[in-house]
Design a protein that fits this description.
The complex is a heterodimer of chains A (399) and B (331).
Chain A: E1 29-40, E2 43-55, E3 60-64, H1 71-79, E4 88-95, E5 98-99, H2 105-111, E6 116-119, H3 123-126, H4 133-142, H5 149-162, H6 168-171, H7 181-193, E7 199-203, H8 211-228, E8 231-236, H9 239-245, E9 248-253, E10 256-262, H10 263-268, H11 273-280, H12 326-329, E11 335-336, E12 344-345, H13 352-360, H14 366-373, E13 383-384
Helix pairs in contact in A: 4-5, 4-7, 5-7, 7-8
Chain B: H1 2-29, H2 46-56, H3 62-71, E1 77-81, E2 84-88, H4 103-109, H5 111-138, H6 143-157, H7 160-174, H8 191-225, H9 228-235, H10 240-268, H11 272-278, H12 283-292, H13 296-324
Antiparallel strand pairs in B: 1-2
Helix pairs in contact in B: 1-13, 5-6, 5-8, 5-10, 6-8, 7-8, 7-11, 8-10, 9-10, 10-13, 11-12, 12-13
The structure holds adenosine-5'-diphosphate, iron/sulfur cluster and magnesium ion.
């Protein structure tokens, strides 16, 4: 990995980056001021800019944003999966306290799969079509354990059984195309967990699956998280998934974090118009699926030449409420929200809560809010912006 | 699998029958009257031509002659040719107008030379082509990659016969390297003479063909390296060597197999320039010779044998596919 020493663009951590001293649990993953750029024939793609976040052991961070907002690029950076020759990266990524950005490939490969594992969006293309499912899982195990093929095979059967593949003992010799979509994703999960990693990054793990299977896969992930006590980063464009899975949420737009907070904060008191847009576009599962869907107008911007000021301004319906030309000229810093610690947003709006309650809330799918208010999902914080105190006094803590 | 092969073989036989009919039609209705071959130019009267036609059996109905012709595939025949009776042992595809021998056996005797040239050349171009292609793919965009691609384009722009001819003139004639160039039986003359005689032809074929294999395998490898499953392989923490060989290469080899199957079939049908320039008595030269002398039975047999190679190559490629890619079910 090339670590380019260009000046880091505005960091997003605002006033919240004072170091925590003597924190009981150091976050397992700490990403600081991560910037990822791709030189292409058309110019420099600024895929991720000044991104900072952290994830503690056993906790789940949801990363949300439309397609093209830099979610995958930032997680592939954590995995060290960007081609160093074609990528410019700067900032810091610490896994288990160890800096991995710029680590040589032969060192990084020992971390990949063993400490941080990844589940990809489409299990059909992510599994090798020419090798048996069991062999692919054994291979992952043997990459980090010096064991015989038969031991690894036993392990593969055990993992397939664990993720709910029926007749694992015989299905271990199936090829991926002989599995259903849901089973393939279960197999991917088995492969990711076979080395008992401390962090699992699930990049849109249910997007390619049938709706009926999606919930099963999410349940499985949550169940396994308890057993393996691993941290999870779940990447999604679906706030419903976040509501169900995540402790904390980071909303990304045009390569930057634009809002961060506990799941409850983000779902009940969002303060950034882009997050509002995402919430309004979540379909109401109890009603006619199309009824309440209000997609965000326009398209995500080109990352070759991101908009000036707030990157969301060309699509933002609330720009007129900001005095002057601020939205177009000045990039908003991440500033604390009004509902509890740890919540930050990147927006110039002077009184977002009032606008939210009056204009946005009536449009949002009631079940999503209800789900949040009823506390159906566990309220725990554990992921945070760097240096951010993970406690959220405004909300009761479980566990 | 077995049923599939049987079905493909039957289909292949049907194709060959169609080819044989076309060949036969050309023989009969084509621009060259077979009887002319026996008719001395200076003294060829229409009367004499008719007699010849009768003697050769060419005046009988075409279907009858075709059946007779094809019967050679199942039994030996006696063929009256220019007044003498010639034994044409099974498999009989006719008797050469010029040499008065079974054309099949004439060609078959030359097959070892052609096969040796083709197989050795194929090994050379596969090694040179695949290695440089994969090397370039892994260093896509670098100087090494650009050097390989442009070298390959440069060599590709030189006509093969020119390349082989220059090599012959400078290396064999000029410098006296490769003195025994030509085909020597590995059994009668020994392996050293065999290899020494074919080393230069192999190298020439290797260089000439490797260019397209380099570019083709580079493309296939670049595609494979971009596949999601290769990213998965890296994400598992496999060593880069394993990622490239076991995951990317295995996928990249599939499209290469297709063009190789057909290329090899064409090579087996005779490497005309190679045989001509390096003086190798192979099937390609025999085919050329037959065309120059309008030796129609020889041309027919040569065409049929070449077609058979291509049919077989296609079946072999399909079987290889199913071996490489488990999703391909032969049914
Ligand atoms: N290897 C690459 N080269 C150039 N551009 C890339 C590359 N990978 C991703 N991008 C661009 O970076 C942006 C962010 O992509 P990504 O992180 O995949 O978005 P998402 O949030 O949908 O996961 C997109 O505009 C994408 O086109
Ligand atoms: S800063 Fe301005 S443009 Fe950006 S989200 Fe806030 S109000 Fe909209
Ligand atoms: Mg993505």
């Amino acid at each position: 990995m090339t670590q380019t020493n260009e000046p880091a663009p505005q960091t997003g951590t605002g006033g919240l980056s004072e170091p925590t001293d003597g924190a009981a649990t150091d976050p397992f993953l700490v990403v600081e001021d991560l910037t990822v750029k791709f030189p292409t024939a058309d110019g420099l793609v600024q895929a991720v800019t000044g991104l900072s976040y952290s994830v503690e052991q056993g906790k789940t961070l949801g990363i949300v944003g439309e397609s093209g907002s830099g979610k995958s690029v930032s997680s592939l950076a954590v995995m060290g999966l960007h081609d160093a020759k074609r990528t410019q990266m700067s900032g810091s990524i610490r896994v288990g306290g160890k800096e991995v950005l710029g680590l040589a490939n032969d060192k990084m490969r020992r971390i990949r799969g063993r400490e941080v594992a990844m589940i990809f969006q489409d299990p059909l293309t992510a599994l090798h079509p020419f090798y048996k499912v069991g062999a692919q899982i054994s291979e992952a195990y043997r990459a980090h354990h010096d064991v015989s093929k038969s031991v690894a095979r036993t392990k593969a059967i055990e993992m397939l059984d664990r993720v709910g593949i029926p007749q694992a003992r015989t299905r271990v010799d199936d090829y991926p195309h002989q599995f259903s979509g849901g089973m393939r994703q279960r197999a991917m999960i088995a492969m990711a967990l076979v080395n008992d990693p401390s962090l699992v990054i699930a990049d849109e793990p249910t997007t390619a699956l049938d709706v009926t299977v999606q919930a099963q896969i999410l349940d499985l992930l949550q169940e396994l998280q308890k057993d393996f006590n691993s941290a999870i980063i779940i990447i999604t464009h679906d706030l419903g998934v976040v509501a169900e899975m995540a402790d904390d949420v980071m909303v990304m737009y045009a390569g930057r974090a634009v809002e961060f907070g506990s799941t409850r904060q983000i779902l009940t008191h969002p303060e950034m118009p882009y997050t509002w847009g995402l919430l309004s576009s979540v379909p109401d599962v109890t009603a006619d699926p199309e009824a309440r869907l209000i997609p965000i107008k326009g398209n995500p911007p080109s990352l070759l030449k991101p908009p000036t000021g707030c990157a969301f301004h060309p699509r933002c319906p609330h720009m007129d409420k900001v005095p002057g030309n601020l939205c177009k000229t000045t990039l908003p810093e991440l500033t604390p929200g009004e509902h509890g610690e740890g919540h930050v947003k990147r927006c110039h709006l002077p009184d977002p809560s009032a606008i939210y309650v009056q204009e946005i809330l009536p449009e949002i799918a009631p079940d999503l809010v209800e789900m949040t208010i009823n506390d159906q999902f566990p309220q725990k914080t554990g992921t945070g912006l760097v240096g951010d105190s993970p406690s959220d006094d405004a909300l009761p803590k479980e566990r | 699998m077995f049923g599939y092969i049987v079905r493909r073989l039957i289909a292949g036989v049907l194709v060959l029958i169609a080819v044989s009919m076309m060949v036969f039609a050309i023989f009969f209705y084509g621009p060259n009257d077979p009887a002319l071959a026996y008719c001395p130019e200076s003294r060829c009267t229409p009367q004499r031509l008719d007699n010849l036609r009768h003697n050769l059996g060419l005046d009988r109905p075409a279907p009858q002659q075709y059946v007779e012709y094809m019967s050679g595939l199942v039994k030996s025949r006696h063929i009256e040719s220019g007044g003498i009776s010639i034994d044409c042992n099974w498999p009989c595809l006719g008797v050469s107008f010029k040499y008065r021998v079974s054309v099949f056996h004439y060609l078959w005797d030359r097959f070892p030379a052609t096969f040796s040239v083709a197989a050795g050349g194929a090994i050379c171009f596969l090694i040179i082509g695949l290695f440089s292609g994969i090397f370039a793919a892994r260093r896509r965009g670098t100087m090494a990659d650009k050097a390989i691609v442009s070298t390959s384009l440069f060599i590709n722009a030189i006509p093969y016969y020119l390349l082989a001819l220059l090599a012959y003139l400078y290396l064999v004639q000029g410098l006296g390297l490769f003195p025994e160039t030509g085909y020597h039986s590995p059994f009668k003359d020994g392996p050293f003479k065999f290899v020494g005689g074919l080393a230069l032809p192999w190298l020439m074929l290797g260089i000439a063909y490797s260019t397209q294999y380099a570019r083709f395998s580079r493309g296939a490898m670049v595609d494979a390296l971009n596949e999601d499953y290769v990213r998965t392989a890296r994400a598992k923490g496999l060593m880069e060597r394993v990622v490239v060989r076991r995951h990317a290469l295995r996928a990249a080899i599939v499209p290469v197999v297709t063009i190789f199957g057909l290329d090899f079939a064409y090579l087996l049908a005779g490497t005309l320039f190679t045989e001509k320039i390096f003086g190798i008595q192979g099937m390609g030269l025999a085919g050329l010779d037959a065309v120059q002398r309008t030796d129609l039975p020889m041309i027919s047999a040569y065409t049929l044998i070449s077609a058979a190679f291509i049919v077989v190559a296609n079946i072999v490629v399909d079987i290889l596919y199913s071996v490489i890619d488990p999703r391909v079910r032969l049914a």
